[in-house]
């Protein structure tokens, strides 16, 4: 029996917004959003920020060919700004000298496995994803700066020795 | 972002990827799609995302256009699954769910303050009765709420559930 080919309700969503919102509508929508936001607890607001942090890291980790390199430190720096934690306080909390924290944020120094395990507990994100982002960036940089340098290596040559 | 879509024939989950698409590869009405994604993705403030299977990266299974709306913040302008995935004869399911969940993730990443984690979109239909049905279906399947101005919204807690279901995030630790 031939199945019904009619499209399903979520096969197509959206379309042109037929009319522009008026200033009055815009203002009342913003007011509505502000009221919703005020009802959210501090904990919920931080949880929302953490969800965005986790999503952006996972999205980046899954991207095989990112156009721009985003350092793990940049992700963390952005998160700290959003949850209003000072870099120095964060550094001390995870046993990094506050004087050196910028070196971690700009990639000059690498976060260790121990750091990743601390961050896992703090921000509820797998340490594996954090380290994956860091390693992935190192690999991209190495490939870009040593282009062709490793082409000479092949198994046949090794077997012929 | 890695996702899993359901192959209807085998009832197996298949690996897929959601990634940014460029205007040149976007489908249009000429390819039997309802929307001209090639044109709709051109404005600088719009970003198009495509869902492809890992083993057939040239075949688009679904498209979605996301933007930051001046009033609503995170906004899903268009979403459509490929013609071969539409209806009860569609080859793959979960395509729209994955794309919606991805847009929810973007709403947490890109939304600021009171808009963070709220995804807005418009349910369109030709007549009022169908429109009501559509809104009910969105409510039942995706937990959307309609705001007083007739736009559908997916709020934070529901967004997280969709992310968990379709993107496998909000990992075990959360």
What does this structure look like?
Chain A: Residues 80-130 form the HTH cro/C1-type domain. Chain A: InterPro entries: Cro/C1-type_HTH, Lambda_DNA-bd_dom_sf. The complex is a heterodimer of chains A (161) and B (174). Chain A has 161 residues and is mainly α. Chain A has a domain at 41-145: lambda repressor-like DNA-binding domains (434 Repressor (Amino-terminal Domain)), CATH 1.10.260.40. Helices cover 60% and strands 2% of the residues of chain A. Chain A has eight helices and one strand. Chain A has helices at residues 23-39, 42-62, 72-82, 87-93, 101-105, 113-123, 127-145, 155-160; one strand at residues 12-14. Chain B is of the alpha+beta class and 174 residues long. Chain B has a single domain (2-173), classed as Aminopeptidase, CATH 3.40.630.30. In chain B, a hairpin with a 3-residue loop joins β4 and β5 (73-81). The two termini of chain B are 19 Å apart. The relative contact order of chain B is 0.14. β1 (12-14) of chain A pairs antiparallel with β5 of chain B.
Descriptive tags:
heterodimer; A: 434 Repressor (Amino-terminal Domain); B: alpha+beta; Aminopeptidase; six-stranded antiparallel sheet; globular; Lambda_DNA-bd_dom_sf (chain A); Cro/C1-type_HTH (chain A)
Topology:
The complex is a heterodimer of chains A (161) and B (174).
Chain A: E1 12-14, H1 23-39, H2 42-62, H3 72-82, H4 87-93, H5 101-105, H6 113-123, H7 127-145, H8 155-160
Chain B: E1 2-7, E2 12-20, H1 37-40, E3 46-53, E4 56-69, E5 73-81, E6 92-93, H2 95-110, E7 119-121, H3 128-142, E8 145-146, E9 152-154, H4 156-167
Antiparallel strand pairs in B: 1-2, 1-6, 2-3, 3-4, 4-5, 7-9, 8-9
Helix pairs in contact in B: 2-4
Which parts of chain A are unreliable, with pLDDT below 50 for 5 consecutive residues or more? none
SSE class of chain A: mainly alpha
Number of strands of chain B: 9
Strand coverage percent of chain B: 25-35%
What integer value in Å does the Rg of chain B equal? 16 Å
First-residue to last-residue Cα separation of chain B: 19 Å
Figure out the total of helices of chain B: 4
User: If classified by CATH, what would the architecture of the domain at 41-145 in chain A be?
Assistant: Orthogonal Bundle
CATH topology annotation of chain B: Aminopeptidase
- CATH homologous superfamily assignment of the domain at 41-145 in chain A: lambda repressor-like DNA-binding domains
Query: What best-fitting shape of chain A do the alpha-carbon axes yield?
Result: extended
In CATH, what is the class of chain B? Alpha Beta
Q: Report the average pLDDT across residues of chain A.
A: 90
Instruction: Give the neighbour order of strands across the main sheet of chain B.
Output: 5-4-3-2-1-6
Helical stretch tally of chain A: 8
Secondary-structure content class of chain B: alpha+beta
The span between the termini of chain A is 66 Å
Name of the CATH homologous superfamily of chain B: Gcn5-related N-acetyltransferase (GNAT)
Mean pLDDT of chain B: 90
Main β-sheet description of chain A: none
The top level CATH class name of the domain at 41-145 in chain A: Mainly Alpha
